[in-house]
Every structure is written in structure tokens, then in C-alpha cells.
Fold Signal recognition particle receptor FtsY.
Amino acid sequence: MFSFFRRKKTEAGPEAGPEAGASSADAPADAAPAAPAPEPEPAGPAPGWLARLRGGLTGAAPASPASPAAPSQAQESAPPAETAAPQVSPVTPAAPAEAPPAAAASAPPAPAPAAPAAAAPAALPPAAPDLSEPPAPPVPQAEPAPAPAATPEPAAPQPSPAASSAPPANRASWFVRLKSGLKKTGSSLTTVFTGTHIDEALYEDLETALLMADAGVAATQYLLHDLRQRVKQARATEPAQVRALLADALADLLAPLQKPLVVGEYCPTVIMVAGVNGAGKTTSIGKLTRHLADAGCSVLLAAADTFRAAAREQLGVWADRNRVEIISQQGADPSAVSFDAVAAGRARQVDAVLVDTAGRLHTQAHLMQELQKIRRVVTKADATAPHEVLLVIDGNTGQNALAQVKAFDEAIQLTGLIVTKLDGTAKGGVLAAIAREKPVPVYFIGVGEKLEDLQTFNAREFAQALLA
Ligand SMILES: Nc1nc2c(ncn2[C@@H]2O[C@H](COP(=O)(O)OP(=O)(O)OP(=O)(O)O)[C@@H](O)[C@H]2O)c(=O)[nH]1
């Protein structure tokens, strides 16, 4: 599901960043006895890279954009001090309390999982798999992966050129799940092509179907125009041909969204995850952690959703399941927890630090400011971080997801998206709207709650699954 392309860790890794230097020394994680720094990666084929991963997860749950408890306003300037018992924020969306400046995240000083000297890169899923592949049985998830054994790195792994032979079995089975998950969106589109003629009525029906699928006006008009051109060029005479041409047009429109998430260029790669309430952030982080752990990456989780106890517990379950560490403290300032996690990740030289933030509506200014603050404080812990800022969006929210992308991007400069819950929705067309109006890369998409239901986004695969 994930593929890695490892390269030598950056030299800046173990060194404290300009701001983080002193602070990180205070971080409990730093003081943790268990910081067996893993051996630096053997020099890979090219400098900087550590891993490249591709995969996806989903989770379906109704989006419930309830406002989380108001954040406490911690002093940005002083992230983690080891003291300052964090005041537990009552779960009320009211008055942002002045929180202690630096909550020492109680990282269980469990021994840091020794990062493998080199993870064996798995075969990359092809960018354009043969979708006619017979369905393989779903890949059952095994028990928590044991600590990955260090394996010698193969010489110069290649970062997955698009041209590849047959997809791995798990990718083929993913296509089946994807197709099934997109059924609601796809069926409304495919019924347009059940007639016998290519006429204006067909285009009108298609326009309606695209709008109903929340593709948005801009993307709908673009696709219709593009499709007409293709039909003319191909001299298509059958609606079924038009359907295939639409799949091509959609794949081309979505192609700019297809981009792999790179882990390993920085040590650690700090990935901040945000989104509205219930979008699937924690679940996606859990699944991503599992994929990373399976691929031999060491991971540290930061429970920066300090307001909802269930969120921390939920993340803790994923941490236990995947045998990775978690930095967490109830009621602490989310920025401080994030700072501590990044500092700990640097000290322990983990491959990735995943920061789970509390859900918030993009219209809640003070909560968006809190998110901005987390981002800034993470940068204090590591001047190059965050390396990825991901927004998790619920596919069920349709056009509202586009508004979320715009607002979160403005606030925290997104680098990628995870689109969950594309199963059970007829609004999967929102990806076309995003491609046309706010093309932020889609790293993963999800069509179910199982681990294997979150996979990397592939534009052609998506288009074909939708219009198959
Ligand atoms: N069907 C489906 N369910 C999903 C998917 N992703 C997450 N869920 C479910 O959605 C629900 C909410 O997921 P969470 O991960 O808790 O969402 P969250 O964004 O962390 O929630 P808050 O922390 O409250 O903001 C859970 O029941 C998940 O199992 C998906 O891709 N498909």
C-alpha cells in the first residue's frame, strides 16, 4: 500500500533547530532515557529522501461539525517547560482560557522503537494500474506489526515511474473497493450513458449529474467542454464511448492532484493534520501510522487534540496497536504538546511525527488562529517543520469541502489532502471541483473504515472506478 524510497537523512536532523535547541532540551521526551538514536540511513540513491509512500484509508462517519472546546491560549514564545501542569480545559466552546504556557507533554518514556537502519522499500503501486485486473480478495489486516527488522536497503530504489506492469494484488483489490465505494456517485453519472444517441439531451443530463455530484459549476463546464472536443476528435457515435472519453477527461482533470507523500527527506518528517470535527483525522492518522510502521518507519504521534479525551484515547489505541509512542497530555496546550512531540521526534530521530489536532470549523476564527499557532510553534521546534500540513475532508460534505480547503489553506498553507468517506456518498465529484478551483494534492482517499480502505490517490484509477 505504501512504498518507500529511502534516502539519506538530512544532516539537520539530530541538530536542534535555532529555536528548538534550548527548548527541546526541556522536553521530557529529550530527557527520556530511551532515545536510541537509530543509525543514519545508509546513503540512498539521492540525497535527502527517505521514503515515498502511497496508499489510502477511509472511514465513514457522518460529519458533525460541532465546535470543539475553545483552545487555551498558551504563550507561543515559551513552548514546553517541564513544569506547568496544564489546566484541563472544560469541554465548552466558550471563553478561551489563558492556558499555561508550556505543558510538558507526558510522553511515556517508553523506549523509542529502534528505527530500522533501512526499510525495505515495498513495490510502488503503479500510477495507472491495469484496472481490468480481477478482484483480489481484500487484504486482511494482520496483527500489529512487530518492530521491523533492519534490512539492507536495495540499491537505488526507483520512485515508481508510471509505467509499470500489473498492479500488486492489494492494489487490484483496492480498485474493487474503490469502485464499490464510489458507487453512489458513479451510478448517477453512468445512467446518463444508457441511451442510444449522443445528443444535446445527453450533455444536459450529464451536466445535471455532475452538478448533483458536487463537481461544481467550474469543473462541470470545463469537463463538458473538454468532453465535446474529445467526442468530436474520436468521432464517437455511441454513448458508451462518451462515457470512456469522460473517464479520460476526468482523469486528466484530476491528474494534478496526484502526488505521493514523501517521508524521509527530513528527520523527522513532521506531518500536521487538521480538519473539521469528525472528518476522520484520528482514524486516518492511525491508518497512516500503521502503513508507515509496516513500511519500517518509526513514528511518533502527537495528541494535539487536548480537549476531547476520546480523541487522545483513540489515538492511544492506534499507538498501542502499532507499537509507536505518543505524546499526550489532557488539557495541555495543543501547541506545547506539538512542540514536545517534534522535539522528542528530533531527539529520537524518528522518521515521522504525526500531529493530530482537534476538529474545528473553518469558520471559527479563534480556532483557526489556534491552528496557526500550532503551526508556528512546530516551526520553533524544528525550523523546517511542518513538512506536510494535511487537511482531512469528509467526502460527504461535497462543495463545503471546497470551502474548507480554501479556508484551511489560507490559515495554515496546506500541502495535501486526505479525502475520507467517499463510500456512501453521492458527492464524490467534489474532487473535480478541488482540481479545478483549488488544486491541493490529494495524498489519500478513503472508502471505508478498514485499514486497507485508505489508499493513495490515483487520478486515472479514480476516474475509471467512478465511471466503470
Ligand atoms: N465510512 C468511513 N468512515 C470513516 C472514514 N474515516 C473515518 N471514518 C469514521 O469517521 C468517524 C470519525 O472519525 P475520527 O477519526 O474520529 O474523526 P476526527 O476528525 O478525528 O474527529 P474529531 O477529533 O472529533 O474532530 C469514525 O467513526 C471513523 O471510523 C472513512 O473513510 N469511511
